[in-house]
Amino acid sequence: MSKSSSPSTFETKLQEIGARAVHIGMVDPAGEFRDKLVSADKAVKLAEQGYPFCEVLYFWDIAENTYRDGSFVDRPAKLFDDTIRTYPFAPNTALCLADFYGEFGRRTPRNVCLAQLERAAELGFDVLAAFEFEFFVFDETPESMRAKQYRDLTHFAQGNRTYSLQTSALHGDLLSGLEQTMATMGVAIDAMHTELGPGCFEAPLSYASGIKAADDAMLFKNFARAYFARNDKTVSFMSKLSPKLSGQSGHLHLSLRDGAGNPVFADPSAPDGISATARHFLGGLLKFMPELLAMCSSTVNAYKRLVPGAWAPTAANWGVQNRTAAVRVINDQPASTRIEFRVPSADTNPYLALSMLLGAGLAGIRDGIEPPAGSAEDFYAARPAPEAAFPRDLHEASARLRASKTARVLFGDDFIDSFTENCDVEFAEYQRQVSEWEIRRYLGVV
């Protein structure tokens, strides 16, 4: 590593880790960590001089099939020294996030999220947030899954039960290894427990300030996949794997603090314990949630969970401590009063889920939007008002997002046009497929 008399912040952080190599991650629209391994010296130069990276990330789908013709030129990108962390799978190695900037950078989810955090700061708020992810683990490798054509897969911990001591007792070493992998990167897991279904787990992350909350969530999913693969297993964050299995959520908790660090969502004197600021945040979120839904639900599969009877919301509603609501207000203590956004699935892009939540909520605060009355009713059994109902699939959600004037004001035309194009490509590919369900239901009958 270079020995300049006044090392940069970037170089100093690598020296503190003792890094001789750096994994640079460009995060694509699907939330995948696109990795390049370089020497520490080269990383320092890239941090100083810029990091040209191919624009193809925004012109191909999740299967890496390009949907635009072009020369796929390099676009200017930069490395962020505040994202440097210890890489968990090799000694003397760091990881660092990078992203496009300038005109092309206006389409990237992380930049969109940073813009919302800046708007929160302009209003005098610090943002604290945390994701919690449910996921299935399989006793399968990528090769074995392909050999089985992704059918009749072997679940890990097949006798698993919700909150099961037995699963933890039997497989504690594997779970502890996952926690240690995350701790190495500074991703703190608040708790871990088994969930409903074979090999099903939930990992709520500890809250973090600002962009770190979304960075932590992105790193958790990417490095959980890598960790289990290193143990000859496969982890799935798909929203819905089977009609016989519960959907996998990616709930997002959020609170705001003022400049002095005081919580602004709590008001112990109010009947429901929440402040006018919290009400207005809820008002904006509930008003705009249906038209912004694609931002937190950007896969075809996500909409297989957002249906009646799947333990997931189907409309914009809220309630204090109501787990059937799209937005649950948690008000056990004033200091920890927060909202839980229960719409996102585990397959959500953390940057876009947080952007959607902040963008809509802050618009509610700015405009003083009052929410409808909260309720303790079972929203799963209720019939929603037409204006509160969610789009039924990715195609409808994408169309509503593209047509939303609010979305374009909050997130910019460049992002909305690029993102909805990607959604439309994904849905068009889905429409061309014929499912096993269709064959079993119609073949020889119609």
From TrEMBL:
Domain (GS catalytic) ranges: 109-446
Xref: SMART domains: Gln-synt_C
Taxonomic superkingdom: Bacteria
Keywords, sorted A to Z: Ligase
Pfam families: Gln-synt_C (PF00120)
Gene3D superfamilies registered for this protein in UniProt: Glutamine synthetase/guanido kinase, catalytic domain
InterPro entries registered for this protein in UniProt: Gln_synth/guanido_kin_cat_dom, Gln_synth_cat_dom
Similarity-based family: Belongs to the glutamine synthetase family.
PANTHER family given in the database record: GAMMA-GLUTAMYLPUTRESCINE SYNTHETASE, TYPE-1 GLUTAMINE SYNTHETASE 2
Protein name: Glutamine synthetase
Organism, as annotated: Mycoplana rhizolycopersici
